[in-house]
Specification:
heterodimer, A: 74 residues, alpha+beta, Alpha-Beta Plaits, 3-stranded antiparallel β-sheet, two-stranded antiparallel ribbon, 2 helices, 5 strands, globular, B: 406 residues, Cytochrome p450, 10 strands
Chain lengths: 74, 406
């Protein structure tokens, strides 16, 4: 079974580039301010979530292992 | 009685100090109709962010959609050349809206991620070292001519896979392409000369990379053509876009940032204490304090209300980074250059889906240059105090920046 992730978006950094929505559309959604929010960390496979994080131009997406707390990105 | 705000954005005063001119508009009439150039002037930070994040209301297809003539005006005999420019610029991916823009950006986005660009840092470091070694022999340099211009061209030429002997020619073309942001009435022949030169130069490179793709940027675009996302003309103009956008803007960051350090000795002293540690936040503050790009334009898709004004469908809407990045509603002591400022939510790279593709590259170049200058030339001085800027509302460009350190 896939490990559980904790996914956060730093809103001091997020510029609403929205690439994360493209890479992991079931995890990230833009809010009313058009900043990204991780609405469902289990929405897409881990590989897609990490790809979304890597493609964030602001490195605003933080991905951690929910069990161990280990930071997987950045 | 209060004086009216002049709508001439090209007066020597407005060019020399855009912060006073656009700051006054921001404070008195933040969504301002400029009658002279028939353009909305958007000046507040929150309005700029809102506008750029509502791409469904404001089209980026400015060259194809704007029915009005070029501004500032051009020679009547050059109207045919302006049509060429519209067609050329209009094919850049940044001049597209969704859904096409997303497909196009997906092709090029991966080349410019923070992770990909970290791999370019050693190349940037070597290039900076080489340029500063040359300057050191003379004890003085024109930052513009000897550092800020050659560095981004070296990097981009490498990204494009341009052979070394051709690089002076690429620089020559880049100089001509810069006329896109200028105001001279006779700018069209020089500009179109640069555009045609680029198409001619890049065409055989694309032919070759279609067959033998490498890891360069032209190969990335060529793959986009193979996938049916780009036409050949779009591949060519997007190569040209990389050269221009990655060039002019970085020049301005490096020159304006160096100038800010020279004019603020206390901040320069702070950077020198810990160049490697301070360079990252310092570069962000350079981007905010004297932003490389002054303004960007959109065309309203429909009637939009902002602060009680109605922006009509097809109206020109221009958002001013220069005033937004000095907005007191967003920044504490906005006119103070503070290299430890955090958070620093400046909009030097815009915002939303069109947020500058090359932002991370500009950051890497800025960080490496400011760090190296602080380590190597601690006693930077201006040769003279008289500074001149290009008459542009798009770019905040010094004409030259001669300095010495002995």
């Amino acid at each position: 079974m896939a490990r559980k992730l904790r996914v956060r978006v730093d809103h001091l950094l997020c510029v609403g580039n929205a690439m994360c929505e493209t890479f992991a559309p079931n995890v990230f959604r833009l809010n009313d301010d058009r900043q990204s929010e991780a609405v469902n960390p289990e929405g897409d496979p881990e590989a897609q979530i990490l790809e979304a994080a890597e493609n964030c131009p602001m490195s605003a997406i933080i991905v951690e292992d929910a069990e161990t707390g280990e930071q997987l990105f950045p | 009685m209060a004086t009216l705000i002049s709508d001439d954005m090209f007066t020597p005063d407005a060019i020399a100090d855009p912060y006073a001119y656009y700051g006054r508009i921001r404070d008195e009439d933040p969504v301002h109709w400029n009658e002279l150039y028939e353009v909305w002037v958007i000046t507040r930070h929150d309005d700029l962010v809102w506008l750029t994040r509502h791409h469904e209301l404001f089209s980026s297809a400015v060259f194809k959609k704007d029915p009005r003539p070029a501004y500032p005006a051009i020679d009547e005999s050059d109207l045919g050349l302006y049509e060429y420019v519209r067609n050329y610029q209009g094919d850049q991916f940044i001049q597209h809206d969704r859904p096409d823009h997303l497909e196009m950006r997906k092709v090029v986005h991966g080349y410019f991620t923070p992770k990909s660009l970290e791999e370019w840092r050693p190349f940037v470091q070597r290039a900076v070292k080489h340029l500063l070694d040359e300057a050191e022999k003379n004890g003085r340099m024109d930052v513009m001519r000897d550092l800020a211009t050659p560095l981004p061209v070296l990097v981009i030429a490498e990204m494009m896979g341009v052979p070394e002997p051709d690089r002076p020619y690429i620089r020559e073309l880049a100089e001509k392409l810069l006329y896109i942001g200028r105001g001279e009435h006779d700018r069209m022949p020089i500009l179109t000369d640069g555009m045609k030169g680029m198409i001619e130069y890049v065409s055989p490179l694309v032919d070759e990379r279609i067959v033998n793709p490498g890891d360069d940027f032209i190969s990335v675009l060529a793959q986009g053509e193979k996938a049916g996302v780009f036409t050949r003309h779009q591949v060519l103009v997007n190569t040209s876009l990389l050269l221009l956008a990655g060039h002019e803007t970085t020049i301005n960051l490096l020159c304006n940032g160096t100038l800010a350090f020279i004019q603020h000795p206390d901040q320069w002293a702070k950077l020198k204490q810990d160049p490697a540690g301070a360079a990252r936040l310092a570069t962000e503050e350079c981007l905010r304090y004297d932003s490389p790009v002054k303004s960007i334009q959109r065309i309203a898709f429909e009637d939009v209300e902002m602060r009680g004004k109605v922006l009509k469908k097809d109206d020109r809407v221009r958002w001013f980074i220069s005033s937004a990045n000095r907005d007191p509603n967003m920044f504490d002591k906005p006119d103070t250059f503070d290299i430890e400022r955090w958070p620093n939510q400046h909009v030097a790279f815009g915002s939303g889906i069109h947020h500058c593709l090359g932002a991370t590259l500009a950051r890497v170049e800025g960080q490496e240059v400011f760090k190296a200058l602080a380590e190597r030339f601690p006693a930077l001085r201006l040769d003279n105090e008289a500074l001149e800027y290009q008459p542009s509302i798009t770019f905040r460009s010094l004409k030259s920046l001669p300095i010495h350190w002995q």
